[in-house]
Amino acid sequence: MRIDLHTHSTASDGTDSPAELVRNAAAAGLDVVALTDHDTVRGHAEAVAALPEGLTLVTGAELSCRLDGVSLHMLAYLFDPDEPELARERELVRDDRVPRARTMVAKLRALGVPVEWERVASIAGDGSVGRPHIATALVELGVVETVSDAFTPDWLANGGRAYAEKHELDPFDAIRLVKAAGGVTVLAHPLAVKRGEVVPESSIARLAAAGLDGVEVDHTDHDEPTRARLRGLARELGLLTTGSSDYHGSRKTVRLGACTTDPEIYGEITRRATGAFPVPGAGGPGAV
To answer: Is the separation of the CB atoms in 233 and 201 below 8 Å?
Structure first.
């Protein structure tokens, strides 16, 4: 089985619609794909409706968190999307995205970059506006060559010149809320230093003690020594280890299935989940 547990659609900052994403996942030879848009579950219904036969969908979200001043992302899988407290927190994060993005655009303009808010909003479309949309505008203007190049201290990286903070969950609250909604939590790309400051291993240990289920180890932003280090830490802490592409469509060069999760780990995630269950593809009206 080929299992990719971290992807994004146009419901947040990917370029594939949810329907396109599941079709592309099937074409890429995946057996299981998780749709984990930032702080939203809005793409799930469309993905389910278009799910091709032979592909299983894991519903989820990537929650924006902050610990001791450091931003981090928490992957939440198979939770009840209607659980009110978790839904309310997701809404608070989403509502703060527009003013935050506007602030970053203003900072860029103050730095002499002629980026227009209207263009950023157009790029985001119906998705939850975020840094990748601003980064795409910077690519269009020739300020940087790629979206990834915008995530540096010069521009949009955590703490960068044009960075602005947003409402983010305390990760201990995120774990509690996801657990209460019957879900499973995995810390996304925890040692991806190229993205900015990361939390220390001692903080990962604290999160594990609070009920964190796993860490995302196999990720394109982790080199091999980092992956080995994370695997050792996971063994010490009793955490599951996952692998994922963190696919964003054409916005990034990473392809679906670039990194995958061991089927036994996937089985343990589904065993722990009680809020929702994987959806097997039945070749619905939007499927191919």
So the answer is: yes
